Amino acid sequence: MKSKLIIFDTTLRDGEQSPGASMTKEEKVRIARQLERMRVDVIEAGFPAASNGDFESVKAVAASIKDSTVCGLARALERDIERAGEAIKPAVSGRIHTFIATSPIHMEKKLRMSPDQVVEQAVKAVKWARKWTDNVEFSPEDAGRSETDFLCRILEAVIEAGATTLNIPDTVGYNLPQQFGSLIATLRERIPNSDKAIFSVHCHNDLGLAVANSLSAVLAGARQVECTINGLGERAGNASLEEIVMAVRTRQDIFTCDTGIDTTQIVPASRLVSGITGFAVQPNKAIVGANAFAHESGIHQDGVLKHRETYEIMRAEDVGWSANKMVMGKHSGRNAFRSRLVELGIELDSEEALNAAFARFKDLADKKHEIFDEDIHALVSDEEQAMVKEQFKLVSLRVCSETGETPHAQVTISDGGKEKPAEADGGGPVDASFKAIEVIVKSGTELLLYSVNNITSGTDAQGEVTVRLSKGGRIVNGQGADTDIVIASAKAYLNALNKLAGKLERMNPQV
Ligand code: KIV
Ligand code: ZN
């Protein structure tokens, strides 16, 4: 009998801690629905004490998810735990995840607390959390650099206080696979009441070892892995969900456990997260990269045609690559559009929003013959952005770009409802458009990244543009989609400026 490996997805919390990856409440709910469809066991929806916005997002996820447990993160502080407890209240199944650092460097330099005080605070935190739910997870932050004896002491105490999951984070991605696996084995062996809790791991990818370390821990008896879609997360990211799940599924000859994940939902989840956060997936990324199942060399192609398993250890359709269905075209009606949205798990909250999305769908169908699920996701994202009360909106854009001439853009944007025109030259049509927008906005931001992705294939595909801007230490990503990539670029730029204009007072749980 195989045991269950619990998949705890933290895309909406640790993933959101990637600079520029912050998500709106609506975006979080859309991603959470996709995670639920994929049968993720636990969704860490955010850090409710960070801000009112984060609190509301966790609450909204808790209210809309029925089949996965919804978790809120809290430092080992009574107020944080109360916020997390309130936020997960609407959930069918809710969890509080509380943490405190246990490595000598974190206790001394960051917390300025003695080891005894840390144990006392951890125990109190778990007891406070138990007042809200009997599903309580405890993490000794920076466990990967903590002393094993101290870990045994604090973990035994928190199990006694009521923690049901013990998560061992390699917060700074310092461990090596063999070492991390034996840490898990030692903790399970030495903590007298270790059988009363599930051991979990949470690995960061600073040395590119997050997945390897997590799998080594699973081989040593961990039964929950914390991971994110596309490996999103602080700095170099977290262990990638798709790699963990497919490694365990593909090597059932080695693992004595398996996940309950519907792997055909992996590629749609990857695309959704990439589209919403603006973090493109590298083409050679395992499982979800565009080239993950592409065979370039003649020898490989020949082998795959003769017998697929000569060069493929997984089937592309098993991870959702075939889910790229052509859904509709120019003649599809409003009802067909509405039912496709329902199938895709997209809920628009008013008839007005549905009408606006349908009008955009018709516009798109005029320009593009075949409309795929990805196109629908992109147009709904764009529509959601358009419905939000935004400071800046694109009214019109005209760009002249000709061989031997300097590109010139004329733009009109609405600034708080007032239309303002401007024009500028630039090094290219996109540069000219951004400069024209800047004549009006004068944002003083620095452009950190500009990227264009095809949402589907073909030259009539919609281009999805991501723009990353930074100002005064804040970093934001903006997205825009259109069959015209210059228009998509202007929309992305304005989207990023709107995010900068919106005050986002939030804190990082670990700082
Ligand atoms: O990396 C880390 O230590 C964390 C904890 C909050 C679990 O994200
Ligand atoms: Zn983390």
- Largest beta sheet: what is the strand line-up? 2-3-4-5-6-7-8-9
Query: If classified by CATH, what would the architecture of the largest domain be?
Result: Alpha-Beta Barrel
> Total helix count?
16
Give the class from helix and strand content and strand pairing: alpha/beta
The radius of gyration over CA amounts to 24 Å
Shape: globular
Number of domains: 4
Helix content: 25-40%
Highest-level CATH class of the largest domain: Alpha Beta
**Approximately what portion of the residues adopt beta-strand conformation?**
15-25%
CATH superfamily of the largest domain: Aldolase class I
Outline the low-pLDDT stretches.
none
Bound molecules: 3-methyl-2-oxobutanoic acid, zinc ion
In round numbers, the mean pLDDT is 92
CATH topology of the largest domain: TIM Barrel
Terminal CA distance reads: 43 Å
Biggest sheet features: 8 strands, parallel, barrel
Question: Quick one: how many beta strands?
Answer: 18
What report would you give on this structure?
The mean pLDDT is 92. The chain is globular and about 75 Å long. A hairpin with an 8-residue loop joins strand 16 (446-454) and strand 17. Helix 13 crosses helix 14. The protein has helices at 25-37, 52-64, 78-88, 104-111, 115-130, 148-161, 177-190, 210-219, 241-250, 266-277, 298-306, 334-343, 351-367, 373-387, 429-441, 485-501, and strands spanning 3-4, 6-9, 42-46, 69-75, 94-101, 136-141, 165-170, 198-203, 224-227, 257-258, 326-328, 371-372, 392-400, 408-415, 418-425, 446-454, 463-471, 474-482. It is of the alpha/beta class and 511 residues long. The protein is 40% helix and 21% strand. The strands form 5 sheets. The chain has an 8-stranded parallel beta barrel with strand order 2-3-4-5-6-7-8-9, surrounded by 9 helices. A 3-stranded antiparallel β-sheet has the order 13-14-15. It folds into 4 domains: 3-277, TIM Barrel, CATH 3.20.20; 292-320, no CATH class; 334-385; 388-502, Double Stranded RNA Binding Domain. Residues 14, 99, 139, 141, 167, 169, 171, 202, 204, 509 line the site of 3-methyl-2-oxobutanoic acid (KIV). Zinc ion binds next to loops.
